[in-house]
Amino acid sequence: MEVILRMVLIVFVAVSGMVMNHNLQTKAQTLHYLKEDLEIAVHDAALEISEEELASGKIVFDQSKAMTTFRNSFEKNSRLTSTDYEIVEVHFFDESTVSSFPHEFTSVKADFKESIVSPTVVALVKTSQNAYYANNAAKSFVQVASYTYKAKVNTIPNIADGLVGEPNEQGFSWPVPFTRTVTSQFGQRVNPVTGVNELHAGTDIAAPGVLGTPVTPAMSGKVTYAGWINGYGNIVVISHGGGIETRYAHLLAVNSSVGADVNPGDVIGTVGSTGNSTGPHLHFEIRLDGVPYNPMLFY
Q1: Quick check: 27 pLDDT over 70?
Q2: Which is nearest to 177 in space by CA: 245, 237, 267, 260?
């Protein structure tokens, strides 16, 4: 009998340990996935900024659009419905809601505080463990995520000379000294603004803090257009001779004019998000006799 009791006790302890371990793993996975889904939703919401304010160098969130985008993004990625989670807090810290940065934020509903140094979206969401994993404990968790623009709109250098590397073997310099990060390649894709599958005729270059940084010609040439074109927003077009043309689109500001002779190192504009754009980046095109080619073939 004693042996049987020992065996029962051992089995009970083992099963209890397995259950406890499973619960801990499930909790960790829930928090992990909730954090990931929330970070994506906050990022997408932060892209809803006023183009009118952006054109004047200010980041101001369109809060109504941002909230809609936040909910749609979170539910799409988490596959939860509106009844599966609760938005505990959402805050939009920008140049219309904060008198000056840094701004100290402390949540009144969760153990979270942060020093906000520039325009930022902060969101806290609460959901239960069984919202992600069926047949598990209904314990609730709160996660927080934020997205911050590290813009330096008011500290734009007058020239980019010295920041631009030597031309490569094909004679091209990189057009954005601030970053070499490509966020969208040349080729067929679903347009993130229109939802239409079409040719993306250029390369998108972006990184956190890129807004307002200098854009410089990829080669020496003459400016043939400087202004607004629907879709492109603020754009500069440069002819380099021999049928070669480059385009620099979605600019925050244009710093050149038609007829100007420009060289790598000259600032022809600054990175922005004008026209059909979902966030600050440079749309860069290289065309030969009017036909767009993949810019990365030249680098």
Answers
A1: no
A2: 267
Give residue 165's Cα distance to chain centre.
Answer: 26
Distance CA 288, CA 205 (A): 21
Residue type, position 27, single letter: K
Alpha carbon 101 to its chain's center: 21
CB half-sphere exposure, 67, CA atoms < 13 A: 8
Per-residue pLDDT reduced to its tens digit, 177-187: 988 888 888 88
Could you give the CA distance from residue 141 to residue 126 in angstroms, rounded to a whole number?
6
Q: Please check whether residue 177 is in contact with residue 166, taking contact to mean a CB–CB distance below 8 angstroms.
A: no
Q: What's this model's pTM, rounded to 2 decimal places?
A: 0.49
Q: Sheet harboring 214-215: ordered strands across?
A: 214-215, 269-270, 253-254
Question: How far apart, in whole angstroms, are the C-alpha atoms of residue 122 and residue 120?
Answer: 6
Q: If DSSP codes are grouped into helix, strand and coil, which group holds residue 197?
A: strand
